[in-house]
Design a protein that fits this description.
mainly alpha, 4 helices
Length: 104
C-alpha cells in the first residue's frame, strides 16, 4: 500500500478478499455441521417451542419483554455505577481531546 509500487494495494486487496471468502466458506460449513449435532438440534427445537408459546399467548410475550427490560435496566444501572478502566479507549480519547483543547 505505502510501498510506492503501483498495483501492490490491489494485489493485497484481492488476496484479502480471497482469504475472507475462504474463511466465510469454512464458517458456513462449520455452522451446517454444528446444526446437525443432536444437542444443537434439540436446543433449536426447544427454542422453536418457546417461540410458538410466546406467539400464542400474548401475556407470556409481555412477561418476556418485561423481564428483558428489567434485565437491561439492571445492566445499564450497573454499568453507570462502575468506574471505567484506565485502559478504556474512551478515557484515553477524552485525555487527548482535553490536551488538544488546552494547547489551543
Amino acid at each position: 500500500v505505502g510501498s510506492g509500487r503501483p498495483g501492490v494495494g490491489l494485489l493485497l486487496a484481492a488476496g484479502c478478499r480471497r482469504a475472507t471468502r475462504g474463511a466465510l466458506r469454512k464458517c458456513i460449513r462449520l455452522s451446517v455441521l454444528c446444526r446437525k449435532q443432536r444437542l444443537v438440534w434439540s436446543l433449536e427445537q426447544q427454542l422453536r417451542w418457546l417461540t410458538r408459546r410466546l406467539l400464542e399467548r400474548p401475556m407470556l410475550m409481555w412477561l418476556f419483554y418485561a423481564q428483558m427490560m428489567f434485565l437491561w435496566c439492571i445492566e445499564i444501572w450497573r454499568q453507570a455505577l462502575t468506574k471505567p478502566l484506565s485502559t478504556d479507549p474512551a478515557t484515553s480519547l477524552e485525555k487527548v481531546v482535553q490536551a488538544a483543547a488546552a494547547s489551543k
